Amino acid sequence: MSWIEIVVEVARAQAENFSDALMELGALSVSVEDADEGTDAEQPLFGEPGMEPKEAAWERSRVIALTPTDFNHAELVELAAAHCKMPVPEHSLRSVADQDWVRLTQSQFEPMLIGKGIWVVPSWHSAPDPTAIVLELDPGLAFGTGSHPTTRLCMEWLEENPPLDKTVLDYGCGSGILAIVAKKLGAGQVEGIDIDPQAVVSAEFNAVRNHCEIDFSLPNKVTTSTYDVVVANILSNPLKLMAPMLSAKVAAGGALVLSGVLARQADEVTAAYAPFIALSVWQERDGWVALHGRRPS
Ligand SMILES: C[S@@+](CC[C@H](N)C(=O)[O-])C[C@H]1O[C@@H](n2cnc3c(N)ncnc32)[C@H](O)[C@@H]1O
């Protein structure tokens, strides 16, 4: 089976309504991208919790609707335009050939070497070096496959500072990748927390699959525990807000490692933690940094 993509350019103000109308009228899926992508007029949109981008679309937005082949494509565009009370925009059609989507997706995830000797290996591959530290992890609904520089920075910090027999808290655990690597590097008790229930489920699944005993939970579990190592790869805004709480989770003499912070945000995050723990940049990668510091003994 194959499909047809309808491609339409609309102004920013119409992108969301037009996309919704296409979906209501029978499109199988709709995506919106910057029509100026790859040119000098390209407009990156960045957001993070509490700082969502003001504009949810681009000055010139390209709306792409996936439809069956036996569909009246011109009529769909006309009806969607009428629904949005806008002139009928020009459209073009692109044929999408059927593919082995599972194989195609899997081919994009190869085993990854992180740091000096940590392999992240999808289940459909065997580990290139079974004697190394191997995490079996498939891309899923939670963030944390090891491909993002912030995850890699935290994993590399843990590899360089092995938490042997130490207690570790992974705050914002996503897939659980950092908690699992900590456990595989010899940590004692390891816990993970995430605000997203789906992440907790994924992390629990991944821990079992990697034969690691780790306790994952939502943030509402109230404890006064402190940990020898606290690692949090979230984003600068929530990290700043959580500075008193996260710092209090670090045991005397323990280490705090933060990532999800852009290099240009390092000073403001360091300032938020200064009353509790002196942080400094450990390493920078692709514009992201990992910050670290120790609570005085
Ligand atoms: C960038 S992902 C990091 C995932 C994984 N630890 C890694 O390093 O790849 C950030 C995670 O933090 C979680 N998160 C965001 N805000 C949070 C909060 N206030 N409390 C706990 N978790 C939070 C998100 O749900 C997400 O799973």
Question: Would you tell me the structural class of the helices and strands?
Answer: alpha/beta
What is the subunit arrangement here?
single chain
Relevant CATH superfamily of the largest domain:
Vaccinia Virus protein VP39
Instruction: Report the end-to-end length measured between terminal Cα atoms.
Output: 65 Å
β-strand number: 14
Helix content: 25-40%
Poorly predicted regions are none
Spatial shape: elongated
| Total DSSP helices | 9
Proportion of residues in extended strands: 25-35%
Number of domains: 2
Bound ligands, each once: S-adenosylmethionine
Strand order across the biggest sheet?
Answer: 10-9-8-11-12-14-13
* CATH fold label of the largest domain: Rossmann fold
CATH architecture assignment of the largest domain: 3-Layer(aba) Sandwich
Mean pLDDT: 91
Order of helices and strands: EHEEHEHEEEHEHEHEEHHEHEE
**In the CATH hierarchy, what is the class of the largest domain?**
Alpha Beta
Could you characterize the architecture of this molecule?
The protein has 297 residues and is of the alpha/beta class. The protein contains nine helices and 14 strands. It has a seven-stranded mixed sheet, sandwiched between helices. A four-stranded antiparallel sheet has the order 2-3-1-4, with helices on one face. Strand 5 and strand 6 (118-121) form a beta hairpin. Helix 1 crosses helix 2. 36% of the residues are buried. The model has no long low-confidence stretch (mean pLDDT 91). S-adenosylmethionine (SAM) binds next to helix 4 and helix 5. It catalyses: L-lysyl-[protein] + 3 S-adenosyl-L-methionine = N(6),N(6),N(6)-trimethyl-L-lysyl-[protein] + 3 S-adenosyl-L-homocysteine + 3 H(+).
